[in-house]
Write a structure and sequence with these properties.
This protein has 504 residues and is an alpha/beta fold. It has 15 helices and 28 strands. Among the domains are: 105 residues, Rossmann fold (3-Layer(aba) Sandwich); 97 residues, ANL, C-terminal domain (GMP Synthetase, Chain A, domain 3, 2-Layer Sandwich). It has a 9-stranded mixed β-sheet, sandwiched between helices. Strands 1, 17, 18, 19, 21, 22 and 23 form a 7-stranded antiparallel β-sheet that branches. A 4-stranded parallel β-sheet has the order 5-4-6-7. Helix 10 links the parallel strand 12 and strand 13. Helix 2 packs across helix 3.
């Protein structure tokens, strides 16, 4: 049998359609129910479904009144506050295309985004770094928009562009991934295929409001089915999360593996009486961490695999737990294959994980690299760039990347982007970057470089912090007499971690 998993297509997305209207479809019948609680150590900020929908639609009206037209792009440079999801959904409600970006991006990085996308406006918190743009709407103005009348939902073709997210490209140039309104319809396949989510659940996500993992799993997906989202206030210490989970009766917890690891390390006697299970994504969940969490808390972790181009589509779930080291299986409604050069490989053999081009969650394309999306197609399949093997029951084992992409705290980072910045330093003649393991299950980005002399690490840190987002910055620097090179003169990045071990 070939490595193809297909349980039949999902229900078609209705038309006309609007992503934000779908997310807030319970705003009328559940108007008084709590949609969002921002959890603080002393206070809790609660938003009902009715208040949330009113603020979203009023913000959409305000953006239109400011002169932004439906279909135009707005760049989001907002911090970790509720203003982020309100502005994001407000733009989509009005037919405007938001581009959420990490608040960690530096001014030079945002200058490249602005040059590529030519946004109609920048939604801006002055505390967040951003290059100059002639039209900026500050956070106070955004908040004042919430007092306006509601805009009409901008209904239309579910295949039209709704939003854009950035992902690191293998070439070192971040890609602008354009998604359609139908992307939220596709996320329904996660509700049973990963979350085990019910309308009476209280889902707590440990991430920031302005992280796309939080935006989708932590906010929009619970709201879509009428569940309550819980988000810790900015600056919450990880060690205090278990207390918040217990006090606010969280039934599901979502975080990157590193958060679970820190909770286990920093907290004693975990008591989570209301928690049914946890959700994990962003990087590979190790078997050791998985088993330790289960032994300490008595709850299960369910892992998901995905990408910016299609969110998650392979996962374990309460109904279908993963076996051994497997990720899980394709979610109901997905069509996934393991491909070799000539198409799907036999079950059990290694190949590239691929998703069918008909998947409603698959991106429209790359705005700044329109030809690259087609280059990643193999016939009817979109290639992820990750290797895997499929068992006879559809469970998929993750076998790593087929390129040199690094993972830093749940963010994929291209080594080329880091190397390009370092190579411009006057004391560096050649640079390489790789993820290295500093202790069990804990990885950091390390930079390896050649030059006339070893450079001061503090000076290098100061150099990169104005040029790279924090999650892209190396945490260690290793000076070498020469970098490992192949016979064709190409840097052997996969050999670099051995040099880290030899120098520590």
């Amino acid at each position: 049998m070939l490595s193809v998993f297909d349980q039949g297509p999902p229900a078609p997305c209705p038309a006309p359609f609007n992503l934000a209207a779908h997310v807030l479809r319970h705003a009328t019948d559940m108007a008084e129910k709590t949609a969002l609680s921002v959890l603080g150590s002393e206070t809790t900020d609660n938003w009902s479904f009715g208040a949330l929908a009113a603020s979203v639609r009023a913000t959409g009206n305000g953006l239109l009144q400011s002169g932004i037209k439906p279909g135009e792009i707005v760049l989001m440079r907002l911090g970790n506050t509720v203003d982020f999801p309100v502005a994001y959904l407000g733009a989509i409600a009005a037919g405007i295309v938001p581009v959420p970006t990490s608040s960690q991006l530096t001014e030079p990085e945002t200058a490249k985004v602005i040059a590529e996308l030519n946004p109609a406006a920048v939604l801006r918190d002055p505390k967040v770094a951003c290059a100059d743009h002639p039209r900026q709407i500050d956070i106070e103005t955004l908040q004042q928009m919430r007092d306006l009348p509601a805009c009409d939902w901008a209904m239309g073709d579910p295949d039209r562009m709704a939003y854009v997210v950035y992902t690191s490209g293998t070439s070192g140039k971040p890609r602008a991934v354009a998604h359609a309104h139908r992307a939220i319809w596709a996320r329904q396949m996660m509700v049973d295929g990963w979350y085990g989510l019910r309308s009476d659940d209280r889902l707590c996500h440990a991430g920031a409001f302005n992280w796309t993992y939080t935006l989708g799993t932590g906010l929009m997906d619970p709201w879509t089915i009428g569940a309550t989202a819980l988000i810790p206030e900015p600056g919450t210490n990880i060690a205090s999360l278990p207390g918040l989970l217990a006090a606010h009766e969280a039934t599901i917890f979502a975080a990157a593996p590193g958060v679970y690891r820190k909770i286990l390390h920093q907290s004693e006697g975990l008591k989570l009486p209301h928690l049914r299970h946890g959700l994990c994504a962003g990087e590979k969940l190790s078997r050791h961490l998985h088993e330790t969490w289960g032994a300490v808390t008595g709850t299960e972790l369910f892992e998901a695999y995905g990408m910016s181009e299609c969110s998650t589509f392979i996962s374990s779930s309460p109904d279908h737990p993963a076996r051994g080291e497997a990720l899980g299986q394709p979610q109901p409604g997905r069509k996934v294959a393991i491909l070799g050069p000539d198409g799907p490989v036999p079950q059990g053999e290694e190949g590239t994980i691929a998703i069918h081009r008909s998947d409603p969650g698959l991106m429209l394309g790359y705005l700044n690299a329109p030809d690259e999306a087609e280059a990643r197609m193999q016939g009817e399949w979109f290639l992820t760039g990750d290797q895997g093997a499929m068992a006879v029951d559809g469970q998929i084992l993750y076998l790593g990347r087929d390129d040199d992409m690094m993972n830093a705290g749940g963010y994929r980072v291209s080594p080329v982007e880091v190397e390009d910045v370092l190579s411009k330093h006057p004391g560096i003649t050649q640079a390489g970057a790789a993820a290295v393991e500093v202790k069990e299950d804990t990885f950091i980005i390390a930079a390896f470089y050649t030059g006339p002399a070893e450079l001061d690490a503090d000076d290098l840190n100061a150099y990169v912090e104005t040029r790279l987002a924090r999650y892209k910055q190396p945490r260690a620097y290793i000076h070498l007499s020469e970098l490992p090179m192949g016979g064709n003169g190409k840097l052997l990045r996969r050999a670099l971690p051995a040099y880290f071990k030899a120098n520590t």
